[in-house]
Amino acid sequence: MVSQIAFWSTLIILNTLAEPSLIEPTQIDDTYEPFEQWVNFNAFAARVLESGLVKWYHFAVWSFRDALEEKELESKDCWYYRIRAAAQWIEQSGNMLFHSLSNTELTERDLNNMSNGLLYQGEGGLSKERWNFWKMKFRALAKLDVSEDVKAIAIRAAEQMEEKEDEENEDEEKKDEEKEEKV
């Protein structure tokens, strides 16, 4: 019994099991069900990241890279699913991602796993610059000829990103006020 507890408390195998589920389904599938499952699994993975149990930052970056840092896919439906999956990372783990920007120690392997897409030429890994690029791309999506559903998802993701920034600014202002009061 103790060995089972130790196994689950370290989540050794969870990364290995999760990775195949986070690979986008092929466009060959004749149904959208695998894409719906893929978006749902991205939401689950984002929740696990937000809980602090794992450090799946690279999975989040994969999702953002595919949706926002690469050229638009010919298949609009597949591209829309990518956007939905990326938005799940903001909705479900936006706090963890935002607070990890430039604050998370990344190994060379991590950085390789978080390589840039074709459309993003800035600092790799998790950075405020990349966060701002993603936010800008979500905003830009809302102005494209896309479905109302995709527009709403993109706008909401950008708004949630701005909320995280505003919360940090408020926290910093509060800390500054507390310092001034002590002096």
Task: Provide an overview of this structure.
This protein is mostly helical and 183 residues long. The chain has one domain. The protein is built from 8 helices and no strands. The protein has helices spanning 2-10, 14-21, 33-51, 57-69, 76-100, 108-113, 128-141, 148-182. Helix 5 packs parallel to helix 8 (148-182). The longest helix is centred in the last third of the chain and has 35 residues, at 148-182. The mean pLDDT is 84.
Structure classification: mainly alpha
Could you give the distance between the termini?
55 Å
Order of helices and strands: HHHHHHHH
Q: What's the shape? A: globular
DSSP E strands, number: 0
Percent helix among the residues? Answer: over 70%
What does the average pLDDT come to? 84
Ranges with pLDDT <50 over ≥5 residues?
none
What is Rg?
18 Å
Major beta-sheet overview: none
- Number of helices in the DSSP assignment: 8
Q: Please tell me the total number of domains.
A: 1
Beta-strand fraction estimate: under 5%
